[in-house]
Amino acid sequence: MAQNASMEEFEALLNESFEIDTPAEGSVVKGRVIAVEAGQAIIDVGYKMEGRVDLKEFANPGEPAEIAVGDEVEVFLDRVENARGEAVISREKARREEAWDRLEKAYAEEQRVEGAIFGRVKGGFTVDLGGAVAFLPGSQVDVRPVRDAGPLMGLKQPFQILKMDRRRGNIVVSRRAILEESRAEQRAEIIAKLTEGDAVDGVVKNITEYGAFVDLGGVDGLLHVTDMAWRRVNHPSEILSIGETVKVQVIKINKETHRISLGMKQLQDDPWDAVEAKFPMGTVHKGRVTNITDYGAFVELEPGVEGLVHVSEMSWTKKNVHPGKIVSTSQEVDVMVLEIDTAKRRVSLGLKQTMRNPWEVFAETHPAGTEVEGEVKNITEFGLFIGLDNDIDGMVHLSDLSWDQRGEDAIQDYRKGDMVKAVVTEVDVDKERISLSVKALGGDPFAEAVGGVKRGSIITVTVTAIEEGGIEVEYEGMKSFIRRSDLSRDRAEQRPERFQVGDHIDVRVTNIDNKSRRLGLSIKAREIAEEKEAVEQYGSSDSGASLGDILGAALKGDDD
Predict the structure, then answer these.
(1) pLDDT in tens, 150-161
(2) What is d(CA 276, CA 267) in angstroms, rounded to the nearest whole number?
(3) Taking every annotated instance into account, which residue ranges of this chain make up the domain S1 motif (predicted)?
(4) Nearest Cα to Cα of residue 236 among 250, 246, 225
(5) Is the pTM of this model over 0.90?
(6) Which residue, 520, 542, 541, is CA-closest to 531?
(7) Which residues lie closer than 8 Å to 497 by C-beta, 6 or more apart?
């Protein structure tokens, strides 16, 4: 009985030993190195189980294995016994399980992890995180694109876990996040030492079209092109070069975005402080054309001081011409200061004011009555435009083309490019108008013809045409018309047909119309005037003598 009890106790202790010491497959167990041979380490994992692990599984990337007899290590138990009666164990799998536990904890707490880049794959690199392999995208290697990653290979350095999935075995890490965080801390430290208005030295790091980035010793500031100089700067490369050390002033610091605005011109005297003293209104100065726009040209009077010559102030004569056809960039020109607005930093300049008004010059040199000659520049419905000296035009109105023809008919005889002579009749300097007359070249034939004729004069005219309403007559080449009612005092004699073309008849001038260039003529008025004169000379209406007797006596007196 005692022997049976002893066997039962032994069996219970043996089962208890199996339950306690026998490890479960798929778990990490502790073992001790009992031998190192043939590139392998023989490890006792307990319960009289031994297994073999390649030495390379104990080595870090690029380093030899450091393992010796007696060392305690953790291994992963795949199977309790293989065909040779040995346990199937793996140090690499044990490190991976250990690493995943550690990495998951670090990921949850957003902590950095240490690793080494050991390989290159499509789109990035592989990183050993102490047993677990992670993917490092190419965009996450550095804050700037890296052309050669060779110097980074094998170096132990910190990484930030961006994403991980244990079930799929995926880990994505970033080196850039660590660098950016470090740079942000460095920037914050440097920015904390800067104050707006400070003058500091910096190195030009990069140049763009709108400015330059200046390194202030670990933090970059933007030097905008408009803050480089008081004068106009078309491109930053005109005054800066990469690597150049420059002195700049801190204009503005954005504490939230850590952006720093810099200026160079702020360290120089502002030329606008002395503009009014140096460039009084009405004075003429030499300047250089720096920019041309549709509305005018900018002229630099001195470095940092530019004025605008508006298109309306560029030429006396070229009104609708683009400024680029009058001046060119970099051309030196004389300009007059018209207006200064220091608050808005604006100077209005005039180009045409430096030259005499061509209409004033013309008025002085060509008084009314002066004969001129020019080319027909344009023909309009109301007259001709004739090109004169100094690029100015004079106009010949339709009414000033001919004495004899209607203006609409006379203008048909002219073509653009014809050379025409004319007489100056009026110059209006304020309205910039010059009136010319072609018909005045030969004088006024009407004025010459009627020069000695007055209203009431008796003149002899020649009949040139017989019409139903009267007769057309001519006097010294000037045509006039006598209406039927003016052909005779006697109504019975008011018949046009009693006259013939070529007849010479005496008529009385009743009107001289210089505007219509017509003489008012009347036979009837002449007869009435003669009757009145006869009455006054030979009798009166109260003497009892008949009109026939008076006229007969008058006629007899004429015969005597």
Answers:
(1) 788 888 889 998
(2) 22
(3) 26-92, 110-176, 197-265, 282-352, 369-439, 456-524
(4) 225
(5) no
(6) 541
(7) 466
